[in-house]
Write a structure and sequence with these properties.
Elements lengths: L1 H18 L11 E6 L7 H15 L3 E5 L12 E5 L7 H4 L1 H9 L4 E4 L3 H12 L3 E5 L11 E7 L26 E5 L3 H11 L3 E9 L3 E2 L19 E6 L4 H10 L3 E7 L8 H14 L4 E3 L1 H7 L9 E3 L2 E6 L3 H14 L10
Parallel strand pairs: 1-5, 1-6, 2-4, 2-5, 6-7, 7-8, 10-11, 10-12, 12-13
Antiparallel strand pairs: 3-4, 8-14, 9-13
């Protein structure tokens, strides 16, 4: 019963905004929203990073607008995590995902604020943003967007249930509001079928790819920056504090590493000395030294204090099937906006 009430409340909220589109606040530059219907764990951050890199390569100046979920310091106003040239804020004021994105895409500005319209205004006026990426924005209906990208996995929405009985933030009917859907782990055909089922006209598959591990230099750790990473086939322990840890562990295994130990924490975990001791004991019991973690966890481990084991982050990128569908959709938005809202630096 509670899930039905939750779904109806979310449906009423969305329809109230749709009936009065003039009440939506609109930024001067185009807004591309990337979000999901479920609570975390759909590969949203790698897609935001992929779009930001594509925009930078194209000559745009993207600004990633984030709410900075679970920040240690809820600073008032807008926190500029990156101005597009350098990282300007640490973990406590930025939050883990914004800091991770700022490091992953050096040419993109990253701004954190609960009021993402305010963050966008600052990005345009002070940082020269020509386009915005609204991170985790599918439910942020008060801000007008030019393109809604919905992230999911096969069957997650049509077979899911709404909170608190399931993991969906809204009912499945909300998916039809998306312009493009990215279905992680799906082929182009399977993604198109899922899109047809949910009423989304454009859909593509998304495939995560793990890169070579890179050392995490935690504060106070006397480790070599050029410590050789474990190659696929090596025995490792995996640790993470993310929404869907099993997916990451399975991806590490599929990439060839032999996972002989797992230490899983809640999402956005601030790692303590006890947590680090637990990871160290798991590695010792398994007879291995190397520990792998995610990019998002790495920024929190860096602030955790000395590490008694070699820790490596495993970068993740995503490819699309068909490759151009998502980027062509963004290019179309930029072309349409070019005639109405001139974009500095645009090559569309």
């Amino acid at each position: 019963m509670l899930d039905i009430l939750y779904a109806e409340a979310a449906r009423w909220r969305r329809r109230a905004v749709e009936r009065h589109p003039d009440r939506r606040r609109r930024l001067a530059r185009p807004v591309i929203s990337v979000g999901n219907l479920s609570v975390g764990g759909t590969g949203k951050s790698p897609v935001v990073a992929a779009l930001a890199r594509w925009l930078v390569d194209r000559g745009e100046r993207p600004a990633i607008l984030s709410r900075g979920y679970r920040r240690a310091v809820d600073a008032p106003g807008v926190v500029v995590v990156s101005d597009g040239h350098a990282v300007r804020a640490g973990l406590d004021r930025s939050g883990d995902e914004p800091l991770m994105l700022a490091r992953a895409v050096p040419g993109a500005a990253v701004c954190v604020c609960a009021d993402r319209y305010l963050a966008g205004v600052l990005a345009e006026r002070a940082l020269g943003a020509t386009v915005h990426l609204l991170d985790d924005g599918f439910q942020h209906v008060g801000l007008a967007r030019d393109l809604d990208v919905l992230m999911t996995t096969l069957g997650e929405i049509p077979n899911g249930r709404v909170l608190p009985r399931g993991r969906l933030r809204e009912g499945a009917d909300a998916a039809a509001r998306a312009h493009v859907m990215v279905v992680m782990g799906a082929t182009a055909g399977a993604a198109a079928a899922e899109g047809w089922t949910l009423g989304v006209g454009l859909a593509c598959g998304g495939s995560p790819t793990l890169g070579l591990p890179e050392p995490v230099m935690a504060r106070g750790t006397a480790a070599e920056a050029h410590l050789p990473p474990p190659e696929p086939g090596a025995r490792v322990v995996v640790t993470c504090g993310i929404a869907n840890p099993r997916r990451f562990i399975d991806e590490v295994t599929a990439a060839g590493w032999r996972v002989v130990g797992e230490v899983v924490f809640p999402d956005h975990r601030r790692f303590s000395a006890r947590d680090i001791a637990r990871i160290s004991a798991t590695a010792a019991d398994a007879g291995v030294s190397d520990v792998l973690t995610t990019d998002k966890d790495a920024v929190r481990f860096e602030a955790a204090g000395p590490l008694p084991f070699p820790l490596f982050r495993v970068p993740m990128t995503v490819s699309f099937d068909p490759p151009a569908l998502l980027f062509d959709s963004v290019a179309a938005v930029l072309r349409a906006a070019g005639g109405q809202r001139p974009l500095a630096g645009s090559r569309s």
